[in-house]
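Supplementary Note 2. Why include the ligand at all?

Several targets in our set were suspected to adopt different conformations when bound, so apo predictions alone were not considered sufficient. For every target with a known small-molecule partner we therefore ran a joint prediction. The input for adenosine-5'-triphosphate is given below.
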Amino acid sequence: MQEDKPIIEISHISKFFGEKTALDNVTLNVKKGEFVTILGPSGCGKTTLLRLIAGFQTASEGIIRISGEDVTLTPPYKRPVNTVFQKYALFPHLNVYDNIAFGMKLKKISRQMIEKKVKAALKMVGMTDYEFRDVDSLSGGQQQRVAIARAIVNEPEVLLLDEPLAALDLKMRKDMQMELKDMHKSLGITFIYVTHDQEEALTLSDTIVVMSEGKIQQIGTPTDIYNEPINSFVADFIGESNILNGMMIRDNLVRICNTEFECVDEGFGENIPVDVVIRPEDLYIFPVSEKAQLIGTVQTSIFKGVHYEMTVLCNRYEIVVQDYHSFEVGTKVGLLVKPFDIHIMKKERICNTFEARILDTNHVEFLGCSFECIPITGLQLDSKIIVEVDFDKVILQDNEEDGILTGEVKFILYKGDHYHLTVLSDWDENVFVDTNDVWDDGDRVGITILPDAIRIVEIID
Ligand code: ATP
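The joint prediction is reproduced in token form.
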């Protein structure tokens, strides 16, 4: 195989479970020997993607190739991959040696060869001398090493790891991360690693694939993903960020927090709403002086081990700043950020857009419900239309029954002076909401949209 040809080619893969879309048109190439981490929040489809590569599940659409061969319908045992699961899945009645040798014994490999391979695998995971121990007598970390030894003993071309460290305590997890990185280097095989832990992904990977809601959001090196997140979801998911609404006034000039800042971005156009990301470590904080771009008051200051994390209220915006020096709560401070540390992103949307239908002069139907609207004139009943609803015009209610429809809070983004929520309606379509109220991930809510918040913008037929 050519060096630069991908070992895994995932082309336009979708996976549906009934009505549920777990993966939506995912395309990803993995190079031979790469350490690729699939990262995303719970339910984003990471495990499903891994299971499709392993062959435990079959794609609804698309093709998977391994080493150039179409394996979309190939059963797991015929694929050159092996999986390490979060739960070690060791046989409790077998000792360490027999757990690792199990697959090879089934394949009737000679005793000498099995012994040689088991010993090599145990050495690789730092468990020499443990071969005759009961697996029950081992710590979680040791059991996971045995599980890895069992997975690598057959020298697969690709090792799939599904949150393999999630069950370990923090110290053990950190140690094992380093060992996995070393193992990856010395084995020279391709690792595909699933985690929801961004720090783990940044530490381990050559390439990170950030997923959300069944879709790939960004693929890149840890540095790329951290420094140049493609959208506010990625910025928020990877590390601490200030994510603010901004207005690109023209090339190299953006307005945030009612203040104009020089930036290095071009090509967005003039007076275009954008998302702006500034990492807390990229802000300078100092006693108020002329060089301050923003002036504010320290609201909180927490020691984080090496640095202090402070929130500074500037106009009405809360800005998070990290610095080695602490400024006392209540102190007036100046903030400054250099142009290249201001990251500008195109907004994915500037309001909610729904396909709708006119029911009568006072009602339209979308999200599976009838909404009262301001009287419609000059349009035929039953016409298909597009309606828009501003984010801050969607009302969320504690009591589900109070809403016209119901949903669940899926993702919360703090934007300095308000929250931007993604609410998955029970109609299975997202509703985006700007609010000052505090909601939690997973909260069930009623959703109401008042008549004057519904704008008819287009007629489809
Ligand atoms: P987690 O980190 O919580 O394991 P994940 O990112 O690995 O989450 P998946 O397990 O891949 O997510 O699930 C993606 C979506 O598909 C979820 O909404 C899940 O409920 C759904 N799903 C997964 N497997 C099935 C199944 N067998 N039947 C129905 N829905 C499923």
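The pocket of adenosine-5'-triphosphate is lined by residues 17, 20, 22, 40, 42-48, 196 (CB under 6 Å). The chain has eight helices and 30 strands. Comparable summaries for the other entries are listed in the accompanying table.
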